[in-house]
């Protein structure tokens, strides 16, 4: 029986009914990963210990965890004990962490099987997965097209049905945008909902781990396992974690959905716009009402983000210096030369570009004009969200202004072209709010995503609104044709 | 031309917490290289800092002692620079909102007391150590020290010469050890300072161009480094040259300061708020608890020694001047009754011994129990004060208890009247001519008889008993 394209919920039932064992399921997953090797979803496979862990799940009849025996893929930015973790960078190509990230550990403690580490934009810097040292990932829907980024490998692996779920991280849209481009569901939780311990930092104040899966229902299962306070991460929230699966099926009568006035959708591709209008009508039919709201400062999101994120990244990436771990250049004259050569040879262009931007934004004489100003604007954007959530429950936007694009077609001349990919997604990172992307149709045979943004800690509302939408539509069931791979 | 010197000191105090500022690794000194290091200390990808509140409590205790403002909300910043012993490529420190603001410290000069104002004191993590000369062709890194909590105390530029700088550092040493915020061990780097030194013509208001002498770690070097630097600057200005603002190192082997290579310090540290740490808030309850548990400071101890133990003002001050001496006194005082005898011994024999050996009392073989026993044996006349001194020498060498030494060497004082009488009769019998002379009025000979008795008893006879029995027998 094929397990490809099955959801976690479906696989759970199959495992519980003994139609398949965890070992067989894991084996299938490894087979599919091999079969679709050309997609380039994975940087490192975890075959030996993955099989061993599946075997011990089969021997354990006590477990009643939803994730027991479910194969998952981990973005290669989460440290995994004894399993190479590269951030898709040459500088970490030989790095084997001595410890595991809390998010991964929690998923594995719940019985899931890590089958491998997924390809990504180098250090999560990119929106197309084209900055990876390990090569491009193909969009399962169309060969030679990007899967989005930075969690491109995770999105493609779920989209191609190799695994039913995967972890991602989202600093400015890195879960939601690839989920949209690959036609799956991806959730960025509230900042602090999931521990950042063991997540290799890009921009500490924006980074947040979250799940990618075929359905909102599956995202709820994964989020249940990943969430919770961690004493090792002081920015992780010390608030109770609800059972996200419990109230996922509530009716949407009276749900107030805000449409952000400042995002002028008329400028979008007509077809992207049409899908958005279709989904509005679906929600209206389900009892929701739409209200136009204003977030006056939201148009400053992109410049604000591209001041703060590179600034933090320039400092966070200082530890990759060739001294203690990772790539070290050979034939160096002195310490300074070791730094210069190791980092020049170890980092790719986009990472270098952001380190330079960030170093500049923090420099004496520019700090006030860039970093400090950006933090002030960030506060204003946050206030805007606080205000609109007085009147609406959730906000709705397209996830991305367009569908997946051809390799090399964007950003090669002007990187800002690619930065605009994040137009709709980055404001929720700046405000620390949860947001989800769900598939809502196709344009030119490529998936399009719908984004819902929730209030602080209200992932439950997002999952509820997404699940009910998916109960009343079949966009999330669409499968890519993988004949060409 | 007449010059005056302006000095500001930045003192780095290693806080004596069990674990590091942002990790649970041990801070113990002297461990094998890279053994007191965990994932956080070596800056592995993905690790995050979490704060050690004990360091905050110690910093606050220091702030209270110098009567400073305590900022109960602490924000940390990153100071970015590359160096091989700085694992993360940045140091977590406090820039805009230091935990301690203002306050002052009194320093003891020869004839007077001067108050030096404190600008601020902030918490930060120490770096590791680079070792450049042990492995041919390689530098080695020891991260044991990386992440150790430091309190950086910045003084106002109110110190006027090298002697005052030394007095300031001595006052700082006394304070931090008294407060138990640091072991104050300068040789191990627990207390060290950077000196900002400038000169100007007497009476001028504008400050001259300063140089910063980095990492001075002994009282002697502070004095020498500043004196050298002041002379150097005066010479420059008198020759019509200018002082360059720069960072310099003091080389004790050549007794000179020289500029650090430009690579040894960065210019733009790109400070920004540490996004991995939320602001740390110290509650009013915690502040109250620190206040309630505040240790006794030297002035309070002096008063107590006078009131409770009847010591003189002079003795009280000497004993209180060092925390280890005062602790020793307090511990021994619990086991004795003759406090002035204890005080005399501490200021006399014991201090002389410690000075000679150049060690602190808690590093010697002397224990408060043993010294208390010695005082009691003298007090209860088991031994004479003179025998006490020889026992003390043995205690310093072997660490044995006075009783052990008394027993093994048979030093117990002879206080038994019968035994003393017997010896006295022997002395009288052996010296008939002296007896006659004494009885004829040569009173001075009394000392001769005492001496003879002591000789025969190897000094162990109880002098009081000897005196009274001798007087009786020589009637």
Q: Can you walk me through this structure?
A:
- The complex is a heterodimer of chains A (485) and B (475).
- Chain A is α/β, with parallel strands linked by helices and 485 residues long.
- Chain A has a single domain, classed as Amidase signature (AS) domain (Amidase signature (AS) enzymes), CATH 3.90.1300.10.
- Helix content of chain A is 36%, strand content 13%.
- Chain A has helices spanning 8-16, 22-35, 47-59, 102-109, 152-159, 176-182, 216-226, 270-285, 301-316, 335-346, 349-362, 368-388, 415-419, 426-431, 459-471, and strands spanning 42-45, 71-75, 113-118, 165-170, 185-188, 208-213, 256-260, 289-293, 394-398, 435-443, 446-454.
- In chain A, strands 1-3-2-4-6-5-10-11-9-7-8 form an eleven-stranded mixed sheet, sandwiched between helices.
- In chain A, a hairpin with a 2-residue loop joins β10 (435-443) and β11.
- In chain A, α2 packs antiparallel against α3 (47-59) and α9 packs across α11 (349-362).
- The longest helix of chain A has 21 residues, at 368-388.
- The two termini of chain A are 21 Å apart.
- Chain B is of the alpha+beta class and 475 residues long.
- In chain B, the strands form four sheets. In chain B, strands 1, 2, 6, 7, 8, 11, 12, 13, 14 and 15 form a ten-stranded mixed sheet that branches. Chain B has a three-stranded antiparallel sheet with strand order 5-4-16, with no helix packed on it.
- In chain B, β13 (211-216), α3 (219-238) and β14 (247-251) form a beta-alpha-beta unit.
- The longest helix of chain B is centred in the middle third of the chain and has 20 residues, at 219-238.
- Chain B is elongated.
- The termini of chain B are far apart.
- The chains are: A alpha/beta (485), B alpha+beta (475).
- The A-B interface holds A 78-79, 85, 87, 92, 95, 97-99, 101, 196-201, 203-205, 231-235, 311-312, 314-315, 318-321, 323-325, 335-336, 339, 359, 362-364, 367, 371 and B 39, 42-51, 78, 80, 82-84, 87-90, 139, 141, 263, 268, 270-272, 275-278.
